[in-house]
Amino acid sequence: MSPKPxxxxxxxxxxxxxxxxxxxxxxxxxxxxxxLSPALPPxxxxxxxxxxxxxxxxAAQARLLARLPQRREVHxxxxxxxxxxxxxxxxxxxxxxxxAPGDDIRDMDWRTTARLSHLYVKTYxxxxxxxxxxxxxxxxxxxxxxxxRLKATQAARLAALVAFAAAERNAAVSASFWEAxxxxxxxxxxxxxxxAIARAAAAPCPPLPPRGRGxxxxxxxxxxxxxxxxxxxxxxxxGARVLLLTDLSWLEDRHAPALARLGERCDVQVLQIVDxxxxxxxxxxxxxxxxxxxxxxRWLDTRASAAAxxxxxxxxxxxxxxxxxxxxxxxxxxxxxxxxxLPCLTLENHA
Length: 351
Fold this sequence. Notes:
This protein has two domains: 47-72 and 129-206 and 222-350, Rossmann fold (3-Layer(aba) Sandwich); 82-128, no CATH class. It has helices spanning 13-30, 52-66, 110-116, 151-168, 190-202, 225-235, 256-265, 276-279, 302-326, 346-350, and strands at residues 82-88, 92-98, 120-128, 131-137, 172-178, 183-188, 241-246, 267-274, 286-291, 296-301, 330-335. The strands form three sheets. It has a six-stranded mixed beta sheet with strand order 6-5-4-7-8-11, with helices on both faces. Strands 1-3-2 form a three-stranded antiparallel beta sheet. The chain is an alpha/beta fold and 351 residues long. Helix 1 (13-30) crosses helix 2 (52-66), helix 4 (151-168) packs antiparallel against helix 5 and helix 6 packs parallel to helix 7 (256-265). The chain contains ten helices and eleven strands. Helices cover 36% and strands 21% of the residues.
């Protein structure tokens, strides 16, 4: 069921947005065939994190995100549609400048040279294809939420919004999904590619490991984070933009070298998704909780632990901020309960 179209406004803006919503609905229905997204792993039970109506609404919001000004770095992947900030060998003439030793003689501007009696060469506006890679953390720690939605659901919303915005800009977008069995979607253009990423991010999360003796869960063995970060650095083209959607519950000092190598090679940004209860414990007294990261139950007195919990959260955030800053990685906190995502993505567009 699709959301109601936005009211028509002067100049036809509302009409265009409504048409875009209808197009996304048609696209979503068309791609419900079994042949879509062969890279997706078989899905187990459970409900999807996002409904088709929610994905459609995010696709409409992406048109607004796509209009925001973009940073002007060069991504050395392959020639494409966007003008680069760097001058080089391309198709569009930019300017003539005085000759310097080492310039290619094939670029000589003979007319300007004859007119000014000094050697001049032509420069061209080089074009590059923007590359964006989304990393969506769907691990056990992300399947937690006390306000409105799970952290994994917020990650799916952010991934869908950014993917559709990239499609609006004709950017190549790819994705990695971190869970018990990692899987990837290769770089592609267009709304079909964005929709495939949105559907993969919103797919039902695999069931948690079965509980063992003593009420604890039998921990799974997903790939180590060092290996995941190293694989990203090895597989992605230099200069690619990487947006990591995670709660960073796994990040420790031992990950710093792999993170630094990735940050040196790519433009990495982190949107850290946290739940309200992780920032401040609710006043519910004594409660048993399941530590999803360590796969064991714990008793917690929320009243006695509230102050210590808040201090620990603040200390943890300062530690994460420092570790990421040393790796040259931009970092921003996003609440799992936040409804408006465009303000959260100003980092992704301007940082």
